[in-house]
Design goal:
By secondary structure, the chain is an alpha+beta fold. It has 25 helices and 16 strands. Helix 6 packs across helix 14, helix 7 runs parallel beside helix 17 and helix 15 runs antiparallel to helix 16.
């Protein structure tokens, strides 16, 4: 069945090409201005918490590895987080992320690096939302309002723009994939762009982005079937989604197939502890810039920042929509409506569904979909008819917003009242402009308010994260930190270093002597300690490691315990050259006798001496030429060659024995003895080792690491590319057929009614 001519009116994007480009540029300009005014308030706003302690240092290390000519895989001395295919969020299969990684080591100012990257993705997000609004029939001016607002909605501003950069990346790619998928379904473009954007969203490595990409493409397929009454467009959209998912599977397969040995092994079942869940009632504060929220996060049961804010005009604008006309658009808006229902249900809980936790992470989609729907409906069905009742309705909605904000943050009630007055006054100006001039003038006013509102919020509220105050300069970080060579383990607790610092120059900060998170990667040092969202479970338990590299007070005793099978300490099995001990956690550590083979040394800098004690091996650094063999039992081993992913050792064992390596026993290791398969094992479920059969004499032992699921991932890529090729060929044939039908009408199409019917069919 073919859609009616009324429906076909919305198949073509409204506005001329010049107008669409101009308003798209305006949306990007608003984002740039918004960033500028925020930086004027807080120059480090875009460089805190996970961004400074996790993401940016990761970019640096991965970039250095790439510049050495290697594809990032294992970093062996970085025991807490050295398996990058499993970590996932390094974006190893995402070409844009890999380009960022490659460039990063050349940028000294890390806060600038993070800000520029986030600005780029915020503009991409704004353009994606702008494009989605356009394809659903919004006029360019109103689509620009939706797009420019998207990077500054509360959760995106205070969570993703500050800390969770991979979430921002994923959302930006998804919105562009959405717009391109609708265009593809409606015959206005081919399958390549939706595939590219979907693949980029999935290969970011952020699981919520992958889930939302799948939900989005499913919603678009259903929505286009409902709208066009034709299964072919829906099938095309679903197929391009399958192709992208097949190609992107390689990003997640290693993590899934390795989960049995990581912290994620316990991520089973579904439960709700209310952490980062967002009740539906929180949407009643969506238009109050001053509102705090009852969402529980790291700041307690109330998150003292406006993370559920969307746009000050969003809720009052509902009063100026001709709702009786809206049902005619519901079929076309099926996809965003399905998505809105899904995200509202998802964000309300439960808090954990297996490895998918903290449902408030998808709050940006609630905000974005609401912006798209409201601006589209205002654009298409905005009215001044019966203006007095509508003004009364808008005033009542504003009153409800103020009262609801007051229930979450009663101590800020004065601010909420001022926000309500702001909404009424500026909203009145917007209505006057629409009545006196045009809705374009109203849209321009709304665009002009976005950056000032964001500036007010940043000036008045703190993000729900800590500022670590890591050095923003690579050169300064390296110059002021001891340049210790070899493998170093730090024992300490980051909570014992916290201060009320207001700048990175505070002398009480630990960053001239200690590392937490990924700060060692900034300086290119080989530290065991690093930030990880997955963690090797048994190794973390051995030294009671936390996700950001902190350890418990018992770790110093544990690291020098002797393994019963090899007779070596865990410090020896890890090939440690040095152990840095935090004085706040071990105030009298240097009064203890140094373990055999170790000695207490004076730290090389004043800050390091003030805050740490240091143990070093008495016989100096372990030479790299020894490979990773650290113990043999009933065997001899002569290393031949060693790299991050392989070992070649000449071994002998007349009566049978074992060879132990300074490697975590990650799934993915294989061993051969003179080319014959040999089983790999885990000593204490931690250290990789193999048992040699009796009679082994000068045999070649080869150890090789391949991320689990890599072959399956490559097969998925091949299958996905094949599907894409088929879709491209079909699209080319479809376009040729349509072109032929238009240029060579047959006799039946010479009839006016038949000609109109043919044009409609072609558009569908």
């Amino acid at each position: 069945m073919i859609p009616s001519r009324t429906e076909h009116a919305h198949f073509s994007v409204l506005g001329s090409r010049r107008e669409r480009v101009a308003w798209g540029a305006a949306a990007a300009l608003v984002v740039v201005v918004g960033y500028a005014v925020i930086l004027a308030i807080d120059p480090r706003f875009f460089y805190i918490d996970d961004t400074e302690s996790g993401a940016v240092p990761n970019w640096l290390q991965l970039g250095r590895i790439m510049r050495e000519g290697h594809f990032p895989s294992l970093v062996l001395d970085q025991w807490m987080t050295g398996n990058y295919p499993v970590e996932g969020q390094g974006g190893l299969w995402n070409p844009v992320q890999m380009a960022i990684n490659y460039i990063s080591p050349s940028v000294d100012n890390l806060a600038l690096l993070a800000t520029v990257v986030k600005l780029g993705f915020s503009i991409a997000l704004a353009w994606g939302v702008y494009r989605v609004a356009l394809v659903y029939g919004s006029r360019p001016a109103w689509a620009a309002v939706a797009g420019a607002s998207a990077p500054f909605v509360g959760f995106t501003l205070f969570f993703e723009n500050t800390s969770w950069v991979t979430a921002l990346m994923g959302t930006a790619w998804i919105m562009n994939a959405w717009a391109s998928s609708v265009r593809y379904a409606r015959g206005r473009s081919g399958p390549i762009w939706p595939f590219v954007f979907l693949y980029l969203a999935i290969s970011v490595g952020y699981v919520h982005a992958a889930v939302m990409a799948g939900v989005m493409i499913g919603s678009v397929a259903i929505g286009e079937y409902v709208f066009q009454r034709n299964w072919r467009p829906a099938l095309r959209v679903a197929s391009v989604g399958i192709a992208a998912a097949a190609c992107g599977a390689i990003t997640f397969l290693p993590g899934v197939l390795t989960s049995s040995v990581t912290w994620r092994s316990g991520d089973e079942g579904t439960f709700n502890d209310n952490f980062l869940t967002a009740p539906w009632s929180e949407t009643l504060t969506a238009s109050i810039p001053s509102s705090v929220t009852s969402i529980e996060s790291w700041t307690g049961e109330t998150t003292a920042s406006p993370v559920t804010y969307i746009a000050w005009f969003l809720v009052p604008a509902l009063a100026f929509i001709a709702w009786r006309k809206v049902p005619t658009a519901l079929r076309e808006l099926t996809a965003p409506l399905i998505l809105l229902v899904f995200v509202l249900v998802f964000t309300a809980g439960p808090s954990d569904i297996g490895p998918i936790r903290w449902p408030a992470r998808v709050l940006p989609f609630v905000a974005i979909i609401a912006l798209i729907l409201v601006t589209t409906l205002v654009s298409r069905y905005g009215t001044f008819d019966k203006i007095r009742p509508r003004l009364l309705a808008a005033s009542l909605l504003t009153l409800v917003l103020v009262l609801r904000a007051g229930s979450s943050g009663p101590e800020l009630f004065g601010r909420h009242v001022v926000s309500g007055v702001f909404i009424i006054v500026v909203g009145g100006c917007a209505l006057y402009l629409a009545h006196r001039f045009s809705t374009r003038a109203t849209a321009a006013l709304l665009l002009a308010t976005i950056a000032p509102v964001a500036m007010y919020q940043v000036a008045s509220y703190d993000p729900p994260f800590d500022k670590w105050w890591l050095p923003t300069s690579q050169a300064e970080a390296k110059a002021e930190f001891p340049q210790w060579q070899g493998s170093t383990l730090q024992l300490g607790d980051r909570t014992l270093t916290e201060t009320s610092a207001t700048s990175e120059d505070d002398p009480k900060l630990p960053w001239h002597s200690q590392v937490y998170g990924n700060s060692a990667k900034i300086m290119g040092l080989d530290y065991v300690n690093a930030y990880t969202p997955v963690g090797y479970l048994d190794f973390a338990n051995l030294l009671c490691f936390e996700h950001e590299g902190s350890t418990c007070p018992d770790a110093l005793r544990r690291v020098f315990q002797v393994d019963a099978y090899t007779g070596k300490t865990y410090a020896d099995l890890m090939r440690l050259d040095r152990i840095v001990v935090q004085k706040n956690q071990y105030p009298l550590a240097d009064t203890r006798q140094a373990p055999p083979g170790w000695t207490w040394v004076t730290p090389p800098t004043e800050d390091a001496e003030r805050q740490t004690y240091v143990l070093e091996r008495t016989d100096g650094l372990i030479p790299d030429s020894t490979g990773r063999v650290v113990a043999t039992v009933g065997a001899t081993a002569v290393p031949q060659s060693s790299s991050a992913e392989s070992e070649h050792v000449l071994v002998s064992s007349p009566a049978g024995g074992s060879v132990v390596f300074a490697r975590l026993a990650w799934p993915g290791y294989t061993a051969t003895l003179n080319g014959e398969p040999l089983q790999t094992k885990g000593l204490g479920d931690i250290f990789l080792y193999v048992d040699l059969p009796p009679g082994t004499n000068d045999a070649e032992l080869a150890i090789t690491f391949t991320p689990p699921g890599q072959k399956l991932g490559f097969a998925g890529m091949a299958g996905g590319v094949l599907i894409l090729i088929v879709l491209v060929v079909m699209d080319v044939r479809r376009r040729r057929t349509e072109k032929t039908q238009v240029s060579k009408p047959d006799e039946e199409n010479l009839d006016p009614e038949s000609a109109e019917h043919s044009t409609s069919a072609t558009n569908s």
